[in-house]
Write a structure and sequence with these properties.
- This protein is mainly beta.
- Helix content is 5%, strand content 65%.
- The radius of gyration is 19 Å and the shape is elongated.
């Protein structure tokens, strides 16, 4: 039956990405007028692979993420991220999987810092007009990867942020992960293979 086909493996995952904060006035529709601030991000957390049928899977994860801009502002954000991906999987034999998919990525920034003439100072995060950036964000997560028969996983991903994180209605502020790489390990992948993956 369908219920008997469902199998789950859990594990750990870490990675990095080339990321950005894009900033522009709301009145300017042209993306050419945007100010794109580039940065790098690193994350670590846990993931699960839920194989619901021979060709489809659900892959939720939760990460602690640190993001910093590569400019004089020295802005850093500390986040919790929860990507929820629906995947198409292709079994390559002996438990090896190729997968591709997409899903929402829910992000919450709980801390921020920036560099000023007085040194490193906190950035205000929240929903007040005086806060630098909104705490919550929503992006589309795209993922392409490979799962080794012994449980090792590798994937590339991108987060396309369309959610405006600015608290000032005159501005639009969006965060994106342009290109990222994940490396992980699923602890009970052998049991998942026995259950029919």
């Amino acid at each position: 039956s369908f219920a008997q086909e469902i199998s789950t493996a859990v594990g750990i995952e870490t990675g990095f990405s080339i990321s950005s904060l894009t900033y522009r006035r709301a009145a300017f529709r042209s993306q050419n007028l945007s100010q794109v601030n580039m940065g790098v991000a690193f994350h670590v957390g846990s993931t699960a692979h839920v194989q619901v049928s021979n060709q489809f899977a659900f892959r939720p994860s939760i990460y602690y993420k640190w993001f910093t801009l590569i400019n004089s502002s020295g802005i850093s954000l500390y986040d919790v991220e929860v990507p929820l991906n629906c995947l198409y999987t292709l079994n390559r034999g002996r438990g090896a999987l190729f997968f591709i998919g997409a899903g929402p990525n829910i992000q919450y920034s709980f801390k921020g810092t920036g560099t000023t003439a007085n040194g490193v100072e906190p950035i205000f995060i929240g929903d007040r007009p005086t806060d630098f950036i909104g705490a919550f964000s929503l992006a589309l997560n795209l993922k392409l990867g490979w799962q080794h028969p012994k449980g090792f996983t590798y994937n590339m991903y991108a987060n396309i942020g369309r959610y405006n994180r600015s608290n000032n209605p005159e501005f639009i502020l969006r965060s994106n992960d342009i290109l990222g790489f994940n490396f992980g390990y699923l602890f009970n992948v052998h049991q998942q293979q026995k259950n029919g993956m």
